[in-house]
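Good day; I would like, with your permission, to put a structural problem before you. What I wish to show you is a protein chain and, alongside it, a tokenised description of its three-dimensional fold. Here, with my thanks, is the record as I have it:
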Amino acid sequence: MSKPSYTPGPWNVYHENGSMGSSGHWGVEMSGETHSITICTMSHRDNARHNARLIASAPEMAEWIRKVVSYTTAPMADGGIEQEDIDRARALLAEVGE
């Protein structure tokens, strides 16, 4: 497999408290040995923590989808996975540069 075009995982969720009455924000970052890279930040809203967790899981989900697609070469006769599901998974991987 070639190296992905996005920042490799794992990505981590963090919360930063605000100052002067601000409620702060949630963020997603990739932490390395010497530095970290911010993937995104979002204002503190009801669903911000859950959105951050979903975003942080993206590299792992992309890897899992890639593996499933690589093992799935044809639709299942019993109606499990259809060709359009396989095609959509491949299209999603292409969108993120896999």
